[in-house]
Amino acid sequence: MQMEVLNFQMNSTLFNPAVFAYTLYVKFADPRYWVIPLLLMTAPSFGLVLTMSFPHPPLTEELQKLIAGGIHHYFLQSVVYLLFAYMFISDGPAGGKLVAEADSLSLLFTRPVTRFCYVLTRYLAAVVGTSILMLGALLLVYLVGFCYGITAIDISLLTVATIVLNAASWSSLVIFLHSAPPLIAIVTVFILMGCAGVGSIYSQVEQSTNAFLELLKTICLFINEWFGDFMPTSIDLLAMSTASAFDIYELAIFVSNIAFFILIAAFALSCREFSYGSE
Amino acid sequence: MPLIAVENLTKTYRQGKVKAVDNACFDVQEGEVFGLIGPNGAGKTTIFGCLLALTHPTAGSIKIDGMSPFDLDVKPQIGFLPERPCYNRWMTIRQFLAYHHWMSGRPTMEREAEIKRVLALVELDVDIKRRKVKEMSRGMLQRLGMAQALIGHPRIFFLDEPTSGMDPLGFILIRKLLLKCKEEGMTIVLNSHHLHEVEKVCDRIAFIRKGKIEEVADVAALSQVRQILIVSWLACDIDAGPVLAAIAETSGCPLIEASDETAKFTVSGNEKAADIIASLSSSGLRVYKSNFEKRELVELFLNAPDPNSGANLDANGGSKLPDE
Amino acid sequence: MAQSKDNGTSHGSKGRINTLTIPIWFIVLVSWLLCFRVYAKLTQCEAPSDNCVAWITPIQFEQMSQKPGAIKKDLVMYEFTADWCPPCKKRERTVFRAPTVISEINNNFVPVRVDLTNEALSSIPATKNLTERFSVNSIPRCVITLASGEKVDDDHYSYGDRFSDFITASIKKAVTVRAKVDLAKGNYEQAIAKLSPDLLTGNAGVERYDSSDYLMCHHLLLVNKRQAEVEPMMKKAFEKSSKYSSMTSEKEPLLWLKQLNMYLRDEISDEQLLKYKSDHYDKATYYLAIGLKQLRLGDKGKALKALHQASVMSAKGYRSDGLSEPLVEALEK
């Protein structure tokens, strides 16, 4: 059995190999869960290459750069990461019954697995799973491009790191959505999204002598300034490394957002109660 | 020192508006079989949730082997059979058991032997390992749940409604299994709304109603204490009514029901029963048959007069209990 | 943190692990990262006092443009931004901090920072004029114009290298824009003097969406009586353009250019040229070619009509050729 491949013992309260293997095995044991996403990911580039190959013109350097640029941005699409991370973290798509999730969790927590360990393990599994899918898709795209003579697709270490980091970023959001009770999770994410948008209120309010309005404006701007970027983001290491000024702040938000979301996920799960019975 | 000590356990929902468990206190000794019984919605499952550290108690304390149920060291010592068998449906039986064995952090070397052992314990064929969880019937799932709970010789075995969905053969299996576990010195805590198939395994029973533990009783003593004696006599021309009333008064055993040829008494022990039969004979009634009525423990408990009000509780819950 | 939730059941003994506890080191790590983030915000987001872009406000720019000789540079860069706009701040951090970009901007442009943070700033006439003129409906936005006001190029969401590429490209592009302005004014000699040799020899090729440059070269060579250079330029340009051909999925690439060239060589008539099935870009190009030809022939009425059509068509294709509109304006005067 494939599960035994990852069969090692680790006496740790941070990482449970069984949960890790389970999370990945659920999806990779069933070809539907990785073949279809892989094909979907590569389909546009297949199409692009096929269209290009109809009149059989020699591919110019400009065109190659164009395709490569398009593909590079395609692999930065946040929604793709979000969907894959959801696929790995949620038990719903695998169990068949969505109801089973809370029940299997309550059974899981009667085993010696701490809540933090569960969050961290599940998160790591999602990062690994999403990265494998994305890197697999990138490799396929590269090979398809290679067959048609497009060599401009960048498959350097920097691209790989970008994909892994983006998977890490979006998985942290999904693990939070998975760990917290749905309503609280949605409200939290809405509030954080609202913090980013609240600044534009400032632009709509006219200069006034009303002290309350002025205070409101100041508060809005303050919230926007300090909490506006508390959402996981995408990162493009390639662009960052070639930029004329390295953006250390961007890196700081990126990393701290991931850590922050894992923390609130663990906290939410610790506070959560599992009423497994009929109540 | 008791293995499980529950003191003043209270659990409320919706800011104290709903009291699921109200000031529950009980102890479970090592090697004991402890039953929690009560009607649906009495709070049995909530108590289980607190014991298994799935819910946070509002007040009170729980100690399992001197530790909080939230302690990581408690977890390897317990096995749990959930009420609803919502297991990972896509797994095969072997994978499911291996997953739980692995998750509990026990040595990899023992895994195969352990799976074989627990499957044998719940009398599932070893060939069944390749079948998927979703292909199994409700009764089979219940057995699988027990196999899962028994992985790694837990010290305490929690069973939530173990008999639901089981066929009569399953009832016997559970009883056999529980007795075997008891022999091995395992502590068993089970919870049910009808105990009549497993009552013989329980050493002690806590009766719960509306979140309160009304009584913790010894099963052996309990079955001794309140029995219903049915006596039948040959028809004759003696007016049985006054005779029966007099006997009931003198023996101190209340008369429940009387007709021309039969009567029912609540008796508290075999001595009293013998007295009643003797007095009936001496008063001229020719008793040809007398025996104890077969009753379930729950019913016995619920039909007993409430020590506080003195009224019979039959009107509310007692007779409405599902009696399969 | 989570342990406090576990009231009543928590155990006093040391060394035991509660299943609900979040390890203290992780909380410390997260706090440290959050502190680092605050530190990075405080250090990165404050504008450095020394080497930085010498931004001026729209009001200052208006005052400068009223004094003759106050504006020393030929290009103006308008950066539309606001305090509450995270992408704008990202641009501030990734673009306007790099020493190379700073010196390039300070050397070549009058940098005008248009702050739209609040109503008080965005409703002043100087700002409002700009937002309306460039129809700014999203920020960050950067518009580069000539000092005389003609738009050179604009950019929406570029960061880092892409933005510096944009600056470099627009400096190059400004040359042709200036030539176009001169052409519209009738200063043909000045115009041709400004054009790069690459364009005049056809070395740069013809881009379909920028064909006005090609037409301008052709026109300027003719009006400056350099007919001998026309044919080699056209030939070379066609040759070079074939590199773009594979980017289209047309059956016969560069058909539009062949048609155009035939027209420029007087082999087909106006009607025949317009008959060729084409989209808005091509139509704009053709009308521009017709307009310029009429201009050379001296028929101002016909020229005005064709040039008007050209500007309409290019607007339909969401692309300004930068030539038809100033020409229409000049002719209408």
The largest pleated sheet of chain B is described as: 6 strands, mixed
Number of beta-strand segments of chain B:
13
Q: What shape does the CA trace of chain A take?
A: flat
Average pLDDT over all residues of chain B: 80
Distance between the termini of chain B: 37 Å
Sheet with the most strands of chain A?
none
Q: Greatest chain-chain interface?
A: A-C, 56 and 55 residues
How many whole angstroms does the radius of gyration of chain B measure? 24 Å
Under CATH at level 1, the class of the largest domain in chain B stands as Alpha Beta
Secondary-structure content class of chain B: alpha/beta
Determine Rg of chain A (CA atoms, Å): 22 Å
The global form of chain B is elongated
| CATH architectural group of the largest domain in chain B | 3-Layer(aba) Sandwich
Query: Please, how many domains of chain B?
Result: 2
The poorly predicted ranges of chain B are 305-324
Q: Which structural class do the helices and strands of chain A define?
A: mainly alpha
Q: Strands of the biggest beta sheet of chain B: in what spatial order?
A: 5-6-7-3-8-9
How many H/I helices of chain B?
9
What does it look like?
- The complex is a heterotrimer of chains A (279), B (324) and C (333).
- Chain A is an all-alpha fold and 279 residues long.
- In chain A, 71% of the residues lie in helices and 0% in strands.
- Chain A is built from 13 helices and no strands.
- Mean pLDDT of chain A is 79; it is low at 1-11.
- Chain B has 9 helices and 13 strands.
- Chain B has a 6-stranded mixed β-sheet, with helices on both faces. Chain B has a 4-stranded antiparallel β-sheet with strand order 11-12-10-13. Chain B has a 3-stranded antiparallel β-sheet with strand order 2-1-4, with helices on one face.
- In chain B, helix 2 packs across helix 3.
- The longest helix of chain B has 16 residues, at 168-183.
- Chain B is elongated.
- Mean pLDDT of chain B is 80; it is low at 305-324.
- With 333 residues, chain C is an alpha+beta fold.
- Chain C contains 16 helices and 4 strands.
- In chain C, helix 15 (300-316) runs antiparallel to helix 16.
- At the A-C interface, helix 3, helix 10, helix 11, helix 12 and helix 13 of A face helix 1, helix 3, helix 5, helix 7 and helix 11 of C.
